[in-house]
Design goal:
- It is a single chain.
- By secondary structure, the protein is of the alpha/beta class.
- The chain has one domain: 2-Layer Sandwich (Nucleotidyltransferase, domain 5), CATH 3.30.420.
- Strands 3-2-1-4-5 form a 5-stranded mixed β-sheet.
- Strand 1 and strand 2 form a beta hairpin.
Length: about 210
């Protein structure tokens, strides 16, 4: 994927309108077979430019770690929140993503004046918000949030791998890769897996009908 630097144009527009603290929010892990969905909210300092901030999917793990440190040290406020597999299964992944974003936003101190959200509208917020299509590419605050969320979730999956190395979470981070599906076929689901999300390939492997001999 081509790396495209995000811009502060939208944030600056809101600041000129009188919204001093502009938060960006994004989530990661929606399409995973295992692990939590994690959201981050970030209020960047308008006077402290951070170079090379872009969509977390377009940078390497090493670059994300470096940007994470710069973002979290220089931000006015930042916060992360997660919904675990049990909660995801109880309310569905979309609602869990919205709930994680809401929690991340409400954890900010001070609370932002306005929130820029990647593609969605977050319910029950006490401040103004705007949904931004492709926000992690267009908006620096959202791109920064995507990096913080991605690094946080990757670290959680690596910790999960330490406690249960059978599935290779340190490699695929819970996504439905071939080796992950192979591990599920061999060991079955663990407590970290989402029962409500079963890719067709996994379903076919587990429930393949027996053939007569």
């Amino acid at each position: 994927m081509v790396k495209v630097r995000a811009f502060r144009t939208l944030e600056n527009t809101f600041r000129r309108m009188g919204f001093n603290h502009v938060a960006g929010v994004d989530e990661v892990g929606r399409g995973c077979l295992a692990g939590p969905v994690v959201a981050a909210a970030v209020v960047l300092d308008a006077n402290r430019y951070i170079a090379r901030v872009c969509d977390s999917k377009t940078v390497t793990a090493l670059e994300r770690e470096k940007l994470y440190r710069v973002i979290t040290r220089g931000a006015i406020a930042w916060g992360v929140a997660a919904c675990d597999p049990v909660e995801i299964d109880s309310i569905n992944i979309h609602q869990a993503s919205l709930r994680a974003m809401q929690r991340a936003i409400l954890s900010l101190v001070p609370l932002p004046d306005v929130v820029l959200v990647d593609a969605f509208r977050v319910p029950d917020l006490p401040m103004a918000q705007r949904s931004v299509i492709h926000g992690d590419v267009r908006c620096t605050a959202i791109a920064a949030a995507s990096i913080v969320a991605k690094v946080t979730r990757d670290r959680m999956m690596i910790e999960l791998h330490v406690t249960d190395p059978r599935y290779g979470y340190d490699r695929h981070k819970g996504y439905a890769t071939r080796d992950h599906l192979d591990a599920v076929s061999r060991f079955g689901y663990s407590d970290a897996h989402r029962r409500s999300f079963r890719p067709p390939t996994l379903f076919d492997r587990i429930h393949q009908p027996e053939t007569g001999g």
